[in-house]
């Protein structure tokens, strides 16, 4: 059941009320942090990966052997990608893939973005 809270200006859903409470005490809700993290991941993959990979929801990979990020879960467990990035063990079907080194925060952002694309 959705909770509805009455405000001076009308009705507010439970989620809206929670957002107001979080923002008024200076705490970002976890889904907002995930959105920010996914956006940071999107920026990283657009900068570092889009030369070969499709990194959006409907684009085609410029490099024919580079899988679209939205289809990675068809071949790889997304949870395993984080460990592979951290260990520098990202292998590809295209031998000209450059080495990619990222901080733990960047890896988390990239994984969050890739996970958000999976259909």
TrEMBL record:
Keyword Signal tagged: yes
Residues in the signal sequence: 1-32
Keyword Heme set for record: yes
Keywords: Heme, Iron, Metal-binding, Signal
Residue ranges constituting the Cytochrome c domain according to the UniProt record: 36-118
Top-level taxon: Bacteria
Identification of the protein by name: Cytochrome c
């Amino acid at each position: 059941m959705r909770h509805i809270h009455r405000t001076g200006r009308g009705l507010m859903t439970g989620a809206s009320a929670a957002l107001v409470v979080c923002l008024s005490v200076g705490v970002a809700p976890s889904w907002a942090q995930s959105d920010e993290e996914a956006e940071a991941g999107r920026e990283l993959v657009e900068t570092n990966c889009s030369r070969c990979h499709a990194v959006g929801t409907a684009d085609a990979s410029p490099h024919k052997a580079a899988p679209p990020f939205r289809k990675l879960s068809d071949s790889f467990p997304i949870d395993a990608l984080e460990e592979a990035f951290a260990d520098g063990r990202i292998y590809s079907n295209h031998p000209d893939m450059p080495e990619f080194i990222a901080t733990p925060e960047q890896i988390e952002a990239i994984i969050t973005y890739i996970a958000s694309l999976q259909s």
